[in-house]
From TrEMBL, chains A, B:
Cross-referenced InterPro entries: ArsR-like_HTH (IPR011991), ATPase_NBD (IPR043129), HTH_MarR-typ (IPR000835), ROK (IPR000600), WH-like_DNA-bd_sf (IPR036388), WH_DNA-bd_sf (IPR036390)
Lineage, uppermost ranks: Bacteria, Bacillati, Actinomycetota, Actinomycetes, Micromonosporales
Signal sequence interval, chain numbering: none
Name of this chain's protein: Putative NBD/HSP70 family sugar kinase
Annotated SUPFAM superfamilies: Actin-like ATPase domain, Winged helix' DNA-binding domain
MF-aspect GO terms: DNA-binding transcription factor activity; kinase activity
Species per Swiss-Prot/TrEMBL record: Actinoplanes italicus
Residues of the HTH marR-type domain: 4-54
Length: 338, 338
DNA sequence: CGATGATTCTTAAGCCAGTGAAGTAACCTC
DNA sequence: GAGGTTACTTCACTGGCTTAAGAATCATCG
């Protein structure tokens, strides 16, 4: 990893931050930090923004210029396509939703969406670094509206998004659990995101058969389709709403699901050694009042008695559009790494 | 990762290999490879060993000099202490076992063992890079017999050992499952080994309580202590021997355990996305005839229907001393990385 | 047998990132 | 406003790597 990348990543995670702190955190010399930051300032990627007293000359604080570069994220979540425009810090500048199209990643409609998003936000094309796509099924086109495209499965993209939005430290191992139409997870280790087959963790050795052919997969035992009880309301969100308003079969179905998800989450924390778990995606957004406490309870217990590494469980604040913002973060991440 | 490290690692995984191949595999230019290899030859770390025709000038093949540098690995496995001396390629040059001592990592006795091992092998102290310790309980001393010490838990150490002995490609994600007095696992991703809490993967949501306080952990449901049936012979090895000689309760106990271990192994492959699984450690060495097929069967099935990335399952050829050779490999690995 | 071509490896000049050490800037206290 | 303290900058230098050109070593073929 180049000095430039290390410094940008340290600013991402720690902003606002001074040059001396950057030197300490990246292990580079102050001289190297000074010259590289000079370049970043000249390029307009970084801003000087205030000072903090220190006993001698005050530190000048640095942060990423949120508006210097932007990226577009796209997520086809089943019934609609979500477009998000983020700044360099991962913050959402504008968003847009259109009805789903078929095939899922037809370049034409996606290009229209991107153009509309950019014009709504009043952002110049030159400042846009690229388009990220959070995929659920097929691969997206190589180019959308003339922009380079990067893609990742939705859960991994959401993990990258959380890495930016939550300002996770690069050394801190963390996992994002995703619930959309299905379960997924992404794990970030040493700043590299990788998918994890969370939905097909086996939670019941001789459980019901899963569409994947396995037995007792989390998806088959506790997936959203099992939660939508035959007699209940149509759709996961409706179940969650009803469960929230009053106890009853809907809440029980969610609680049952949450018990299994918590067990699978424990396995993830256990195997990857992460100490931060982010719940994200529309499913967890709708039903976080059940899943959040259930998972946190189980993880806290295991942490207290065994791991002892103060594992944190949080629900992503923008969980419904997490995959789209994550897709945009893929672009930011790739521009940072180079 | 420096060019030197990349080249050494590529030779480790691919030897014998020519300079052009190294350039291709590491992404460095041929010029850079040439000069760094020159240095490695001068230092005596690498040997030129034959040539291979190529249409033009034949390629000169390079390999690590097995005897150029050596490392010592130590593993305290409960009833005895195993010392292993390995060459630069991870091959075992000499070994030694002494009765266990208490406390487990008393510097004095360990130093004696190391000195005896070196003198038995007739190896000069200068050529020994250091001492690795595969730990099960406490931390080892910082220094043994005047050598620097590195340590890792036994399963992770065994994973590093397998990485060397099996010549795993650096980009290839792989996991080593370990069975000694308990289960463990190490996973190597991007050339970095990390421990994975394999023994406490939950395989039965409301299973029996584990000593760790959890419920339904692999260790509690299928660990060696559960295999040693109350009426059966004393010790896991005895059970394995009896199971091998004839069907009966011992074989059944192992088969039952293997079913759960296979499920947990599937979870590991699924979450980490590895495509190579190595079974190692004395437990798997003794009972590989049961665990090997059971795990391979389950993994093969899941791979055929879902993953489709040709996952390989193997049993380590030197599984009984894997932790010790792995400990020595820790030293090799650290000297390579610098 | 010597020219030709192919391929591998080496050498030389240059570039660039990062280091070390010394210098400058900005604030505090007294 | 002098002196101390900390933050940042400048500059000469080093070393690793690249590009480009050259040397070595084999096969082939007239």
């Amino acid at each position: 990893m180049s000095a430039r990348a290390r410094i940008l990543d340290a600013i991402r995670a720690g902003e606002p931050v001074s040059r001396v702190e950057l030197a300490r955190r990246t292990g580079l010399t102050e001289a190297a930090v000074s010259t590289t930051v000079r370049k970043l300032l000249d390029e307009g990627l970084v801003l000087e923004t205030g000072r903090s007293p220190s006993g001698g000359k005050p530190r000048t604080l640095l942060r990423l210029d949120p508006a210097a570069r932007v990226a577009v994220g796209i997520h086809h979540d089943g019934d609609r396509i979500i477009y998000v425009l983020t700044g360099q810090t991962g913050g959402v500048l504008a968003r847009l939703a259109t009805p789903a199209v078929s095939p899922s990643y037809a370049a034409g409609p996606l290009a229209d969406g991107v153009e509309r998003l950019l014009s709504v936000a009043g952002v110049d094309r030159d400042r846009c670094l690229g388009v990220g796509v959070a995929t659920a099924d097929g691969p997206p086109p190589d180019e959308i509206a003339g922009f380079p495209v990067l893609s990742q499965d939705q859960a991994t993209a959401a993990a990258v998004g959380a890495y930016w939005v939550e300002r996770v430290e690069p050394e801190r191992p963390f996992a994002a659990l995703y619930l959309g139409t299905a379960f997924g997870a992404g794990v970030v280790l040493d700043g590299r995101a990788r998918p994890a087959g969370f939905g097909h963790v086996c939670v019941l050795v001789d459980g019901p058969e899963c569409w994947c052919g396995g037995r007792g997969c989390l998806e088959a035992v506790a997936g959203p389709r099992t939660v939508i009880t035959s007699g209940g309301p149509a759709g996961f969100d409706a179940v969650a709403r009803q469960a929230r308003s009053a106890p009853g079969p809907c809440r029980e179905a969610l609680e049952a699901s949450a018990g299994y998800v918590a067990a699978a989450a424990e396995t993830v924390v256990n195997l990857f050694g992460v100490n931060l778990l982010v719940l994200t995606g529309p499913g967890f957004a709708a039903a976080s009042f059940v899943y959040g406490p259930a998972i946190a309870r189980r993880i806290r217990a295991a942490d207290a008695r065994t791991w002892k590494r103060s594992v944190t469980v949080t629900v992503s604040p923008a969980a419904t559009i997490a995959a789209a913002t994550g897709a945009a973060a893929l672009i930011l991440q790739s521009h940072l790494t180079r």
